[in-house]
Amino acid sequence: MSRNTHLVLGATGKTGRRIAARLRLRGTPVRAASRSSRARFDWSDPGTWDAVLQDVVVAYVVPPPVPGPVHQFVVRAEAAGVRRLVLLSGRGADGWGDSAFGLEMLSAEEAVRGSSLEWTVLRASNFAQNFDEDAFHAPLIAGELALPAGAVPEPFIDVEDVADAAVAVLTERRRHAGRVYELSGPRALTFAEAVELISRTSGRPLTYRQITRVEYVSTLVEQGLSEREADQIAEMFVLMGSGLIAETTDDLATVLGRTPRTFEEYVVRAAAAGAWHER
Ligand SMILES: NC(=O)c1ccc[n+]([C@@H]2O[C@H](COP(=O)([O-])OP(=O)(O)OC[C@H]3O[C@@H](n4cnc5c(N)ncnc54)[C@H](OP(=O)(O)O)[C@@H]3O)[C@@H](O)[C@H]2O)c1
Question: Which top-rank group of organisms is this from (predicted)?
Fold first, then answer.
């Protein structure tokens, strides 16, 4: 493979697979890597790292599920001759204080921002696609989403926009070096409003129900998560409730020169693809 290889970690995930597809369409040499990809990469097995870093000029990094490994990964990337790193992180990460939420993202930011390489951090709001490709999907298929989300709205971002921004940052050298972009959708809406839009557009009677943090944690534990994992996820709703990440930002327009896609555009597209059909 060419020395201009663009490494995409988390390549089977929501952002990685969209980024890899966009890069391939442009004719960019791509190495799409994850535990289940042909280019096997496992954060918990450093023996898989050097092979995927060969001939890589720039890497898109989706943080590992636990804090720590990115520090060692950055050392390996530097040694392999990688020039640039683009890290996916979460909105407002430097304001999370001593919250237990997102420790893996904070650790990854510290590693990437402390590296000798050219780096860029993309801090994204909650993804719209969480409603059809991730944790909120199964409850909606069952007819009800119950969360401790409260009335503070969230500026959900369309993952297609995250992928567009990531590709711009991966392919435009220097312009984005040392920048931290806070990426949001164009409008903040509550979870109740989001579910109402999905219900209306999909033609199914879907409801949002407000629950307490304790109820949410015990639901997650019933689903098989450990108490600690469940607590960490619940912390995200505490952060959201504080209003810290509720504002929209202009950073997507700074990167792409256009406004972000709306939540309504996302809902129409996903509903038309049958995302919330009764199974
Ligand atoms: N969802 C949101 O609203 C949101 C918002 C902002 C930031 N984030 C952050 O975005 C990240 C997730 O990105 P995403 O949504 O694009 O991915 P995703 O859909 O959650 O998929 C995870 C990806 O990582 C790979 N992976 C999982 N464990 C791995 C391991 N131990 N070693 C190597 N690869 C592994 C998976 O592939 P394999 O199973 O094949 O390994 C998959 O490609 C998380 O750090 C999350 O905190 C999420």
Answer: Bacteria
Residue type for position 28:
T
Written as one letter, the residue type at 72 is Q
The tokens describing 176, both together, are 């984005």
DSSP letter (8 states) at residue 62: P
Please provide the distance, in angstroms rounded to a whole number, between the alpha carbons at the two ends of the chain: 43
The finding on whether 126 has its CB within 6 A of some atom of ligand 1 is yes
Q: How far apart are CA 142 and CA 91, in angstroms?
A: 29
Nearest residue (by CA) to ligand 1, atom 24, is 10
- Return per-residue pLDDT of the chain as tens, 279 residues: 568 999 999 999 999 999 999 999 999 999 999 999 999 999 999 999 999 999 999 999 999 999 999 999 999 999 999 999 999 999 999 999 989 999 999 999 999 999 999 999 999 999 999 999 999 999 999 999 999 998 999 999 999 999 999 999 999 988 999 999 999 999 999 999 999 999 999 999 999 999 999 999 999 999 999 999 999 999 999 999 999 999 999 999 999 999 999 999 999 999 999 999 987
> Could you give the domains of the chain?
5-125+159-183+247-260 (3.40.50.720)
- Nearest by Cα to 73 from 64, 39, 29, 38: 64
* Type of residue found at 32: A
Given ligand 1 and candidates 19, 37, 88, 134, which is best to mutate, with the most ligand atoms within 8 Å of its CB?
Answer: 88
12 burial type by CB count under 10 A (0-12 exposed, 13-18 middle, 19+ buried): middle
Ligand 1 in reach of 10 Cβ (< 6 A): yes
pTM of the model: 0.98
Measure 98 CA to ligand 1 centroid, in angstroms.
23
**Does the beta carbon of 232 sit less than 6 angstroms from any atom of ligand 1?**
no
Q: Cα of 191 to ligand 1 centre, how many Å?
A: 22
